[in-house]
Amino acid sequence: MAHICMNKIEVLLINLVPSQRKKPLDGIFTAEINYGLLSIATELHENNINTKIIDQQLHSEGNFDNFVIDIIKQSDVKLIGLSCISGFAYPELKLICGRIKSYSKEVTIVVGGKDHVGKLRKRVLKDIITVDILVKGEGEWAIVEIWNYLKNKITLDGIPDICFRDRHGNIVETPPTGSSLEPLLRPLNYSLYENHTTFPPSIELSRGCQYSCAFCSNIPKKVRKKSIIRIVEEMEMLATVYRNENLKIYFEALTLTFTERELLELGKVFKEENLKHTWRSQVRVEYLNGQKLEKLYKAGARVLDVGFESGSEKMLRNMGKTENAKEYLRTMSEALFAAKEIGITLKLNILFFLGETKETMKETWSFLMDNMSTLEALSAYPLYCFPGTKIAGYTEEQLEKCGASLVKSDPWVEKRVYPINLSKSVSFKESQEVGIHFGQAFQSIDKFVEQKKYGYICENTDLKKFYLQLQGLEKNKRPFHIDEKEKRDAINYVEKYLHS
Ligand code: B12
Ligand code: SF4
Fold first, then answer.
1. Which residues line ligand 1 (CB under 6 A)?
2. By alpha-carbon position, which residue is closest to atom 3 of ligand 2?
3. DSSP per residue over 258-321, as a string?
4. I need a surface site. Which of 12, 67, 278, 391 has the fewest CB within 10 A?
5. Residue ranges making up the domain that contains 45
6. Do 26 and 154 fall into the same domain?
7. 188 domain residue, yes or no
């Protein structure tokens, strides 16, 4: 793999760390690779442009800006690309862009992240005057085109799906490309990422999702995916990079789309080549019907995050999850039972939604209690209004109809992300607190750690130390119980809340 020399860097790509995360435990003790940036870096590298990715997660607080400035001082950096995939890192984006420009006006700052800055579009250039160019969608081709612009080969207005200021200072937005121009999914060049082996291994399986859940910023799209042969090749490549034949890999996909045939093909490779790797990925409830779990197990799956969201028929309908809630809940119950037998952990993600009341929460709670013997992993979230989601398009009157309102205090306005008070009877804060207790009631510390081994903590993490750190956390920040007493306390807490 190519060696990157610091003084030759022409494009510096930066992954920012949010100062505050969605769930209290996110980002603590764990590090996640930004594979969107890695894909962009791979594309630049293949175009012979010297590129390096640095990641704020690897640097102690307060030192990162100086580290960036030092690289600019020592090298040939002409373009800095910053990734801001979520509003939680938007304030950091503003700060670091200001810092870079105050050191050098010569460097061109490009920002991207289709799920946050990409949705805010022109707003970003108004909010952050030090940003030169915003890429709204997938960045692989756009960044190479922007490089060509810096080399005076093309003009900016010919590049699709970007925002920039023209020479009069007016903000210009170019139209998107057709889907035929979407970037291909290619094997990633890990060596371009700062200390890549300190991150847990992951493989990007696919892009796009055909659904449109009301809380999600996804725009329904045809799925593009890698072939099984390609995925197996990448597993082999990761085994070499990490020098480990027994990896726990995160399979990145908005939602798993392996067909039955593909699962059988992958299972066959696992058997014939005696592969020891195992993996985690995300699925929708419908995906788990029939005999799929057994095939998933044979193909290496051990943890699946399920977008279950709710046990309330009304909430499921409002979210646009399903029209047939009864069938949905039956599938979930059966899958939990089968998965436990087979040896796959199903982690249920729960989202308290617009119009949620104690009555609808009770329906979810009673579904969970009914399935207590097979349910071991769970995460329950409060609701945020993210740009680009259906919810973000609701008027104040529409929200008021279900008694909901947005929390619009300054720190949230700065992020352009708004917590939601769900109804007159359930505030944002309550939904957050109840969510933590849902987790404590159903999930043990051991199950929590088992899941984190995929995609969140790296292979050589000292597990003893990790346990100690988790145990040392404030109880109201932990979505898991440490002992049976904590479990009982959490159940009592939720039941008392729901009946108050
Ligand atoms: C996988 C995922 C993650 C993964 C990995 C993300 C990654 N790219 O590495 C992890 C676990 C790290 C993660 C973390 C978080 N996530 Co997340 N994540 C997702 C998810 C499911 C898919 C994102 C995706 O499509 N990745 C595929 C890669 C290839 O795409 P990409 O990163 O967007 O990169 C492409 C383009 O955006 C663009 N691009 C990106 N950066 C740059 C930079 C430049 C210079 C250019 C030119 C282009 C460019 O080019 C890339 C390649 O084509 C989305 C949900 C969804 N359904 O869309 C949520 C989502 C993006 N996450 C979200 C949130 C809130 C978070 C967290 C705050 C949650 C937390 N748990 O703390 C953190 C914040 C991380 C951060 N650094 O800001 C929200 C953001 C909403 C918002 N507007 O704020 C989303 C939309 C989900 C949701 N609705 O809740 N996430
Ligand atoms: S929540 Fe998942 S299934 Fe629903 S639209 Fe978003 S990515 Fe697709």
1. 16, 18, 21-23, 26-27, 32, 34-37, 39-40, 81-83, 85-89, 110-116, 135, 138-140, 142-143, 216-218, 252, 254, 386-387, 417
2. 211
3. --HHHHHHHHHHHHHTT---EEEEEE-GGGG-TTHHHHHHHTTEEEEEEEEE-S-HHHHHHHTS
4. 67
5. 6-181
6. yes
7. no
